[in-house]
Amino acid sequence: MAKRTPGDLIEAEQEALFAEEAALKILPLAAAFAESSLRTWITLMVRGMALPAVTISVFQLAAEGPVLLQRGPFHSSLWVPPTYGGYASAYWNMVAAEAGYDGPKGVEGWDVDHYYAKARADVEGYGLVRLGLAKASANRSAGAATEAPIKHFEEKIAPGRRSPRRLMEQDGYTPKDLADSPNPHVRHMDELMNCKVLGFKAPGKRTGLTDAHDAYAEEISRRTGIPAEAIRRNLRELRARVTRMQAALKAVA
Question: Which helix (H) or strand (E) holds 229?
Fold first, then answer.
């Protein structure tokens, strides 16, 4: 296997995300309630889309739970519990083993990131979150601008409203059913997260969408066939939702 440089690694990961989005016509998978949820979704995806085979195995064990390796359909991904503190080290170990990467454990200007905000996943009850690289500047601005308000809103105003455990209990499942049985409860990246992972800063409360976001929408559209205007609309709607959450938090402060 040819050894890969940091640039190779970043390019391959982003190309795989484009391929997944193009195949599914939906943003890449980001969080799962449990290993059984992930396996169920993967089985349905591969069967329904005639995609290459996917395997899921335990990469390593941690006190917080198993760290899972997903091989395929487009590249290898690591899934970790949202509370797992060793996620960055686990990611670099994975790309060394799976992608032939022999560079430093850390790439200047890039962060190992969770494709679904780890604090939000923990609040909502998701047991596994997918890892990948994100542009550091976009990652850190998104944390303050969008991820923190959503987390605080869900903690203080609408706790657990989208929790898979809560949703499934409403459908007649018990906690024991959830622990013992496969279920399809997963979450995909949203447009703000995808924007960040691809190196674009999230739309600001005051600035809204900029020329950079138009460029992002056009690039996603070119790569996936999804209409650029639909992508811009998603960004505007998500930015408006975060603004409403910030207003609600301010009202109860």
Answer: helix 228-252
